Amino acid sequence: MAISRSDALHLLRRSGFAATPQRITELAASADWTAAVDSVMDTSAAPFPPLPAAVHDPNLNDWYKWVAVVGWWTEVMRTSPCPIVDKMALFFHGYHFVSGRAKNQDAETAWNQIRLFRQHALGDYHQLAQAVSIDPFMLSYLDNGVNRYPSKVNENFGREILEAFTIGRGNFTEADVVAMSRAWTGHNLTQDKKSYVFDPSAHDDGQKTLFGITKNWNGPDALTEVLKGVKAVPASRFLVSKLWLYFVGTNPTPAVVDSLAAEFRSSGLSLRTLVRSIFLRPEFRSAEARTALVRSPVEWFVALIGALGIKATDAHPEWFLGSMGQAPLDPPNVFGWGRNADWLASGYWWRREDCAAYLRWVATDSDWPYQRFANITSKASPRTVADTMFEAFGIVDPSAATRKTIEDYAASVTGGWHGWSMRTNAIVLTALCPEFVVG
Amino acid sequence: MNMYEQFPSHLRDGIARLGDDPEFEDVHAALSTPVDERGLTRRRFLQAAAATGGATALSFGPLSKMAAAITPLGEGDPILIVVQLGGGNDGVNTVVPALDPAYARMRRATSVASRAISLGEGGLYLHPALPKLAARYRQRKVAIVRGVGNVALEHSHVDAMATWMAGTASPDRSTGWIGRLLDTMPDSNEGLRGVALDAAVPLHMLGTRCEVSALGATGPFGSNRSRGAEVALFDALTKMGAGTGRGGWSDAIGGVNKLTMERASDFATAFAGGGPTDDSLSAQLYRAARVINANVGVRVLGATLASFDTHRDQAWMHNHLLEDFDAAIDGFYRTLDPRWADQVVIMTFSEFGRRAADNGSGTDHGTSAPLFVIGDRVRGGLHGTQPSMTDLDSRGDLRVHVDFRTVYASVLGGWMGVDPKPILGADYGSIGLFTSRPAPPRHPYTPAESKFSPFRDAGAFIDQQYDDFLGRLPTPANRARWITRVRTGQTSIPSALREFYYAGSYARAGAEINRIMFCLTGGPATFEQLQRWMPMRESMGLRAVVAEMIHHPVARGRYTRLWGYDLVDRLNRHMTGIAPSKATVDYWFPKINGNQENGSVDFITAVSSTPSAKVRYHLEAVAACGHTAMLRRAPASSQARLWGSRLRAGESTSSMFWYFYRVPEYRRRFG
């Protein structure tokens, strides 16, 4: 008993980035859906190739280091046998425990946080939350690095950890923000902003009332209380809802959220358990879910270079990702990136078109080593053109309309003056077809 | 809550990161919403990517506004170009009180008095790098508003620039005065009403409702319709995603593909054929003029010239910048279609002027400065009050006599025809900067039809091109499609002519026949010969044509007295420009000796498809074909050769066709 190719494709796209024809075939051969889910959840082979030397080069400015990190990460996303790791890291980085370059532009510091997300991708949520709270990139971004008792209590982190990271609006009071901020005083940064340091002299050791409980709260205890104590239910529901939107894309019913949240809590906040359960829910495989998400610029870019087999560094993600709306290491604010409609502004879309138009040359031109789609000659039949593209781009079930658009285009140029351009231009058309962008 | 709360959320962090005296580029970047970041380096760091909901100016509801088509402007619509002179322009050396003894005393290192150009009034002079602007001033087409500044006296680039850009009485910095102006226009969300000519949308152009975008140096993807292969892609992309039946987001993808392609093709004529792509003001205003000529409904255009922060070595740098400014204004009016000239106003602004006294090398941040308002309908001359070089404030700065928002109010009310008060948040009065507003349309505007002269309309033009180049009339559907393309400016007349040429038999058979004719006879085929030979080439093959060609008197004279090796050698040289290889001679010698005429025809036919033959006289042949198709007679050999060399030197074929289109002989064909 195998699963269908479109089921395999759906699971690959949601649990990862690129879906190559080989991987679709491989996954479709799984015994059943559960086996397929366990296959994409298997992180035993998760790689961690060394960062490019540029990141550590003191002579390079931040721009080049940023380019190096972004190139590295997108290449890992493209090639990793366990893309779920980076899919989760992207979630935590850009949609959940958000930090950006705003106040700390050191690429290594930024990268260390991504590494943290990768390390705990499917691990213990509580451990991850504790670790990211004292991560230097986070300490910079939300100013806890300078949250010092008594004269410089900074409430930025104390507020956002409640509102943006753990329980959301409506589940805490302004007094809780004050108590939380006091609890995190003294959890600071070293002068060079590269390391965490606890400074007891800057920590408020007084009694604080958090969620109605008065005691000498320290930051980590307070966070444990949120995730595992009195706020455990809203905290689990908060994460479940966000992950559901990220992986499924539809609005979850309260019953689904409650059931997943209860299971998550009883697993001891195991991210692996939660993500696996989401993939196993029938709603995940519903027709509605399959068309509920527009691939974000990062997801789309990685899928595109995956389909074309182009190395990330040859594709220059640094030229395109930011202007398509999603610059890695630089989310817009503490609530992270938007979704779906937010990617469709015409200014952003022009840049997706530019990106595809650039990559068509990298994929086919003799200046690069790829030379894809040599079977599309200037006289290729329209059907060959469409089939070749659908195969390469992992589109297992193209709509009649999309096939017609590509075939009509091919018919209009094949064998003619512009026949040579079919091979390059079909790439652009396919990269921007709904079957590739949505899902 | 922090001090940057008043800025758009996606800009706050970038602004917060600026140091004490940041470079203009950094400040401008922090106050801009990124659109095109290719090739940017440091700027990237100062921009937080546009946020969810933060990038209102770039966003549109994906399912609601898809169908919005552009509405071209009419004769009564004013157009405004806002030129930012970034970094703080030295007003004292722009409009120079050259005769003031205080000027000579305070400007020892930076004086331009000796070469400055007299305005003929007020004892004032223009910087020596502004001769063309001075000439325009003498035509009363330049208003100089003196002593303009920000009464809050902000000396930091970021505070001052944000204040100027926001243009409001309130501390709010989330939108700009131009953005709010566009928001008030009833059609502000129907197409792009504001465009930045460089890579990012600056704060002053951000509104909450209007669509504003940055065009970049080469135009958005889809706007360059000069290459046929790309046009085929753009047209296919326009349809990509419609009707998949795969849900709302799939339809939205179809919508945005179509929208971006249509928007881009609106701009096609503005970017066709390229142009300068550097970041000079001249390049930006050249594009501005072409965008206006394209008439795609853009009301406000933003341009930026940076580097006015001349703390050091001012003499050289300021001169360099103002030279660009002078050339940019002049070039703009040379590029602009004259029928738009009295609908356009150009105004400048800079975040502050500079200190009255120089610092021995350059000048430090100051306060008030003059600004320019340029246009055919401005009240030319001096406005405002000239700040005294001796009555200075405690820091040694010039007095501010005109609040910058008074200038905005005057432009909004006097030129754009809107009530300035809701846009600026208070009543700032007005100075009369304009003699009149653009005249309301007296008769319905007829788009572009006049361009089709000598044809009565676009349809007649299209019919004639079908007849001349393709030898048939168009199907109704093709006719309608072409008419739309040329009427809306998606295809210019020259590029339409070029497309017709390449679509027909002239490009396929005619050019081949003509290049062989050039090889054999030194000139092109006549109109009648082409009429006979092109269909013959297509139905019977090249050999049949060559068999007739060699009876041309010149060919007969050249070849009939030659035999054997000599004939092979001569034919090969004429056809390819080089001597035959030994293998060629060995192969052809016996055939030609066996039958001189048939052997020659076979040889010519065969050798004509070799690479060296294909490039020989190819461009002369193209020129001759175009000439023959359009003027119904072959050009003289010398004329075809002249065009060949022009094409070889880089002139486009479309401009050659455009030339043929405009010669009186072409018009005479149609009475």
Task: Record keyword descriptors for this entry.
heterodimer; A: 439 residues; mainly alpha; two-stranded antiparallel sheet; two-stranded antiparallel ribbon; 4 strands; B: 671 residues; alpha/beta; Alkaline Phosphatase, subunit A; 3 domains; 9-stranded mixed beta sheet; 3-stranded antiparallel beta sheet; 29 helices; 46% helix; elongated
Cα(first) to Cα(last) distance of chain A is 25 Å
Catalogue the unreliable spans of chain B.
34-69, 441-450
Helicity of chain B, as a percent range: 40-55%
Q: How far apart are the termini of chain B?
A: 75 Å
Q: Which architecture of the largest domain in chain B would the CATH scheme give at its second level?
A: 3-Layer(aba) Sandwich
Mean pLDDT of chain B: 84
CATH topology grouping of the largest domain in chain B: Alkaline Phosphatase, subunit A
Number of beta strands of chain A: 4
Name the biggest interface.
A-B, 64 and 67 residues
Biggest sheet of chain A: strands side by side, in what order? 1-2
Count of DSSP H/I helices of chain B: 29
Number of helices in the DSSP assignment of chain A: 23
Based on secondary structure, the structural category of chain B is alpha/beta
- In the CATH scheme, the class of the largest domain in chain B would be Alpha Beta
Summarize the main sheet of chain B.
9 strands, mixed
**Tally of distinct domains of chain B:** 3
Mean pLDDT of chain A: 93
Secondary structure class of chain A reads mainly alpha
**Taking Cα atoms only, what radius of gyration of chain A do you get, to the nearest Å?**
23 Å
Low-confidence stretches of chain A: none
Q: How large is the radius of gyration of chain B?
A: 31 Å
